[in-house]
Amino acid sequence: MSQPDPTPPRRATIQDVADRAGVSRGTVSRVLNRSPRVSPDARKAVEQAIAACGYRANPHARSLASGRNDAVAVLLTQPQQELFEDPTFSLLLQGVSDAMTGSDTALVLVLAGNDEERRRAVGFLDSRHVDGVVHLSPHANDPMLGALLEADVPVVVCGSPGPRVSSKWLRTVTIEDRRGGYDATAHLLERGARRIAMIAGPEDATGSIDRIAGYREALGRAFDPAIVAHGDFGPRSGRIALAQLLERDPSIDAVFCASDRMAAGAYETAHELGLRIPEDLRVVGFDGHAIGLELSPQLTTVFQPIKQLGRTAIQMLAEWTNGSDPGHRIFPTELLVRSSS
């Protein structure tokens, strides 16, 4: 009986893949690094050759050769419970996960909702550990964003970081928040509302600031800052804000909420006060979350493509790390008219 050969089988190399695919080593390398500068035919041939050869990249050697870490971070600066309570963040993460399908790049979730978490995050988020960062929750005067931009690591922000923030390391993917606020308010005016209040998000939330600007633009001279209240995007704050607004001005006959969750809270207050929606109070939300379909009557809302934002942020980072400037991306919103208005 012959003895088994103790010599381990030779590991397939990039040259083996290139020879089988009939392309250069450089083309194989570009496919492995997800470069957009590869034709569809060449990419398919390389992928088939990789499968046939059983080629597996050596991640340590690849990292040393490329200067990459094969890891990207997703940063959340909201309190931890928001990750589970606010569907906006779960949808953003779903989009991020979708874009990572089939990739060898590791995804690292970094929480920075308090001082201790921010200290740890600042020490970790640099080019020694990650190739780029997707920032999910920007605010005006965000200390984390300033620290990231000083770390010389590519950052894609899902939302606007504010008008005075710019850097060669910063790109944004966002929506037309101002247009969404305008469309919501113009719709309420068209439906006959005369005294339209607004429940906005936190005063330093850049998306909410832009939604207020759209609301104000639609109202023109009828704009009254006395009937603008601020919440935290959650339902409890919407419930409290509407109660305060109606106490301040009982003539309010419509309210635009900067999130669907705050609109759900406003529904609670309206029901407690015996106000019928939409007969006594017209309500419009913002986000397009499933909760709007669960409310009775169903909520008119401004839809934003949240999953697409997360997916696009990762695609932009991939382009950027492969040498192409992704620029800035902006997506339109859509008014979904239902029974509440």
Characterization of this structure:
Keywords: DNA-binding, Transcription, Transcription regulation. This protein is of the alpha/beta class. It has 3 domains: 14-57, lambda repressor-like DNA-binding domains (434 Repressor (Amino-terminal Domain), Orthogonal Bundle); 71-175 and 306-331, Rossmann fold; 177-303, Rossmann fold (3-Layer(aba) Sandwich). It is 44% helix and 16% strand. The chain is built from 14 helices and 12 strands. Strands 2-1-3-4-5-11 form a 6-stranded parallel β-sheet, with helices on both faces. The protein has a 6-stranded mixed β-sheet with strand order 7-6-8-9-10-12, sandwiched between helices. β8, α12 (260-272) and β9 (282-287) form a beta-alpha-beta unit. α1 packs across α3 (40-53) and α11 crosses α12. The chain starts with 13 loop residues before the first helix and ends in a 5-residue tail after the last strand.
Quick gist of this model?
44% of the residues lie in helices and 16% in strands. The chain is built from 14 helices and 12 strands. Keywords: DNA-binding, Transcription, Transcription regulation.
Features:
single chain, 12 strands, Rossmann fold, alpha/beta, six-stranded mixed sheet, 14 helices, six-stranded parallel sheet, 434 Repressor (Amino-terminal Domain), 16% strand, DNA-binding transcription factor activity, 3 domains, elongated, 341 residues
